[in-house]
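Example 9 (inverse folding). The structure is encoded as follows.
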């Protein structure tokens, strides 16, 4: 019997005669068991006959006998592909590539496997090699187009889809992909034409219509998506998936009433479907109907207890209701239900850092980075966490990473500005220039010019004044805003508060009571807030955030009111040319010292730029006797965020404490007492700066009443530099603890000067580092203890009698300052109205 040649078996395979090819190969193997080529053909024939397991065994034998058999490596990889073993398929093809780097079949197969593994970037080179050898290889064009689309290289993807489309003009999928690229490239007219061509071919095909709608929806073109969902809904009114996604596109456009209609329809069609209840809850939450929102989320979770989105949304709702522990538990469930979804990680990290659980927040931060490595939102969350932990240099490094990838990322640039205030080596002039650069890069183009203000130009009328802040709650800002709201003259000022944060607490409720009007704007765009301010007819708009969390500086950059000011949030310029004034006093900003550091004019209040109200928890607390009298040594403390304690500060403190070997420094870490990572960082930093470690005692965050009470153990508080304490200094002074401060040349390093001068503690203001040390050392003796005891005993009354707590006087001064600014604006309006028109 004559055995078939390799060519004969190849011919059978090419003609699709797979059974015949197998028979010929097996005949040769019966005659000669070690016939490797015959075994290869048998393996290929078995694969083509859909007998993958047998094929794999035969091809494995071939590769044992001949490990470098290029065609067997490719064939075995195809078997693995059919068996969904992508990892082994990749390994086999990498072996083949090493043998024949330019082989067409191997490059195509490797590209295909990498695409299926989701490794789009790695798939591009082998696919491009395959096309270089065979430009008409349509499957390679399609795979490469898919890769380019995933990599956001839409122009290149479009070119490859077009080539494939020309070869297969009836393919609706390719037309759909071409339309998706055109949408991404902003070529909406051609995209619409392409989509219409698809509709002509299959006007009522559910799959085609749904793909069209989904393509538009995924590209963010919700108006176009709605057009196709509307057609779908006409043809398939009982399709739950259509109703839900129809609602989603309406929701993305902010049309909540229409979205609710389709979510309700979906819930009616499928009472046991979870998604409609989740999304309907979102509509109710948007409408501020929290009770209904909670009911819908809970109904969703009854149907599907591990619905991750409902868990995360309900957690957000609970957090706004001050139910942090319940929110935390829900977020942990959401992460467990969908461990590769980033949103609940972000929420949980923010929740944990607000509660100073930094060690645990870091754990979840690392998990988030493992699933969203390099994402800007992830990086900014890490930067925020590092800031909370006081690791300013590391936070700045993260911001730099974002800015290297996206130089015009406004939030990263704003974060960098905030961090720069902590840098002791940065001159005031360089810092001011950085703020003005931010305005030039990110804000100035937003300025609305030639705005015609509808506000009545009447110098003496009641003024409408708006305060914009995300901190109208238990936050530092509220300690200084509340007495002003409480004391304002309602005949002179009509006060509007615009809260940029959804969170409310008992402090919020008090502020609401003292405010004439209250608006939540956290979920409104700048354009929507502009319209709201126009309707409210605001005359003077005051920012209370500067470049801190929840700011709305882009709103101010648009010139949202005739007069704009900044106050309290941070005593520094915003850099924004559209903001007219920064409210301050002559001690923070002495005449002739800081004007050049500001984009704004300085509105100096005669009494004080601050007006403090102690927390309720501190109202009944006694100052107590001086601790040094019973301890026999001085107890110092720093109650400021650890990020303010830079190496220059610690080095100066080290010099101070080496001259006072019995004195103790109580150092606030910002975390819990047992936060090991944070405590280690603080200890290592102090030790590296030469601080005598036996004199250092760390303490963590405490409830507010315990925080105030802890002052009863402290003789003197130490103010850091260049970023002084603000609220912390006021707390210290209220509890009878004088604050030793080092005056600087910029307002952020003169907060201590302002407050100490207000309460008559000028002797605790140092002009040089040497004087800073000397002032402290002068009290380290029995006579010094007696002097301190006298200061402590009189300090609270002195503070209550001082401008720092004279709410009525500071409020009158503020009202006079606002009126002065208003009169100047009115005069400008009259001059403009009377100016002759240019020919």
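The amino acid assigned to each position is listed next.
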């Amino acid at each position: 019997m004559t055995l078939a040649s390799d060519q004969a078996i190849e011919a059978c395979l090419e003609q699709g005669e797979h059974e015949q090819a197998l028979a010929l190969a097996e005949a040769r193997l019966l005659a000669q068991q070690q016939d490797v080529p015959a075994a290869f053909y048998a393996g290929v024939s078995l694969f083509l006959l859909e007998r993958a397991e047998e094929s794999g065994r035969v091809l494995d034998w071939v590769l044992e006998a001949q490990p470098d058999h290029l065609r067997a490596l490719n064939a075995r990889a195809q078997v693995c592909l059919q068996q969904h073993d992508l990892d082994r398929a990749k390994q086999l093809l990498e072996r083949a590539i090493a043998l024949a780097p330019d082989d067409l079949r191997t490059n195509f197969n490797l590209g295909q496997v990498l695409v299926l593994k989701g490794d789009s970037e790695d798939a591009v080179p082998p696919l491009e090699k395959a096309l270089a050898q065979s430009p008409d290889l349509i499957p390679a064009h399609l795979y490469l187009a898919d890769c380019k689309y995933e990599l956001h290289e839409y122009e290149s993807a479009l070119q490859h889809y077009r080539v494939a489309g020309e070869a297969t003009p009836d393919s609706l999928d390719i037309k759909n992909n071409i339309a998706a690229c055109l949408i991404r490239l902003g070529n909406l007219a051609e995209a619409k034409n392409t989509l219409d061509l698809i509709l002509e071919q299959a006007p009522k095909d559910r799959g085609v219509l749904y793909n069209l709608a989904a393509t538009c929806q995924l590209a963010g073109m919700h108006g176009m998506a709605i057009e196709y969902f509307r057609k779908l809904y006409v043809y398939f009114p009982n399709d739950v998936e259509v109703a839900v996604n129809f609602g989603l596109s309406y929701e993305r456009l902010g049309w909540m009433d229409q979205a609710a209609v389709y979510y309700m329809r979906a819930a009616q069609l499928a009472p046991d479907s979870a998604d409609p209840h989740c999304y309907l809850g979102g509509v109710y939450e948007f409408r501020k109907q929290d009770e209904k929102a909670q009911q819908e989320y809970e109904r969703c979770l009854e149907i599907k207890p591990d619905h991750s989105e409902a868990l995360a949304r309900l957690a957000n709702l609970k957090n706004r209701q001050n139910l942090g522990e319940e929110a935390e538990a829900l977020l942990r469930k959401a992460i467990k239900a969908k461990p590769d979804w980033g949103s609940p990680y972000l929420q949980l990290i923010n929740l944990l850092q607000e509660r100073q659980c930094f060690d645990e927040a870091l754990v979840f931060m690392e998990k988030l980075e493992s699933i969203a490595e390099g994402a800007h939102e992830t990086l900014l969350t890490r930067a925020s966490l590092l800031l909370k932990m006081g690791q300013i240099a590391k936070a700045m490094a993260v911001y730099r990473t974002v800015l290297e990838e996206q130089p015009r990322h406004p939030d990263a640039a704003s974060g960098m500005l905030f961090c720069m205030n902590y840098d002791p080596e940065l001159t005031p002039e360089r810092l001011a220039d950085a703020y003005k650069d931010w305005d030039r890069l990110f804000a100035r183009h937003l300025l609305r010019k030639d705005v015609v203000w509808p506000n009545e130009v009447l110098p003496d009328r009641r003024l409408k004044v708006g305060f914009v802040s995300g901190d109208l709650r238990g936050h530092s800002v509220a300690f200084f805003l509340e007495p002003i709201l409480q004391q304002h003259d309602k005949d002179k000022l009509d006060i509007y508060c615009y809260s940029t944060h959804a969170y409310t607490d008992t402090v919020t409720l008090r502020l609401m009571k003292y405010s004439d009007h209250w608006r939540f704007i956290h979920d409104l765009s700048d354009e929507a807030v502009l319209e709201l301010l126009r309707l409210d007819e605001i005359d003077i708009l005051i920012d209370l955030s500067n470049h801190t969390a929840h700011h709305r500086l882009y709103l101010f950059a648009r010139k949202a009111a005739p007069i704009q000011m900044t106050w309290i949030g941070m005593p520094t310029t915003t850099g924004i040319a559209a903001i007219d004034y920064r409210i301050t006093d002559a001690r923070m900003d002495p005449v002739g010292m800081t004007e050049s550091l500001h984009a704004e004019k300085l509105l100096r209040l005669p009494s004080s730029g601050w007006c403090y109200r102690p927390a309720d928890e501190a109202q009944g607390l006694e100052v107590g006797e001086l601790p040094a009298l019973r301890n026999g040594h001085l107890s110092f403390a720093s109650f400021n965020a650890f990020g303010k304690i830079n190496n220059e500060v610690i080095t100066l403190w080290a010099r101070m404490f080496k001259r006072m070997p019995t004195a103790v420094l109580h150092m606030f870490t910002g975390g819990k007492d047992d936060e090991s990572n944070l405590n280690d960082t603080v200890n290592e930093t102090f030790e590296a700066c030469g601080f005598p470690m036996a004199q250092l005692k760390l303490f963590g965050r405490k409830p507010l009443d315990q925080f105030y009470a802890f002052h009863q153990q402290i003789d003197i508080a130490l103010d850091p530099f260049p970023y002084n304490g603000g609220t912390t200094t006021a707390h210290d002074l209220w509890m009878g603890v004088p604050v030793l401060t080092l005056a600087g040349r910029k307002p952020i390093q003169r907060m201590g000067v302002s407050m100490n001068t207000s309460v008559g503690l000028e002797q605790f203001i140092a002009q040089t580092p040497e004087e800073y040390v000397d002032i402290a050392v002068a009290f380290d003796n029995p006579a010094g203890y007696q002097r301190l005891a006298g200061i402590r005993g009189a300090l609270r009354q002195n503070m209550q009698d001082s401008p720092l707590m004279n709410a009525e006087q500071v409020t009158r001064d503020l009202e006079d300052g606002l009126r002065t600014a208003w009169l100047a604006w009115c005069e400008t309006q009259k001059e403009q109205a009377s100016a002759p028109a240019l020919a």
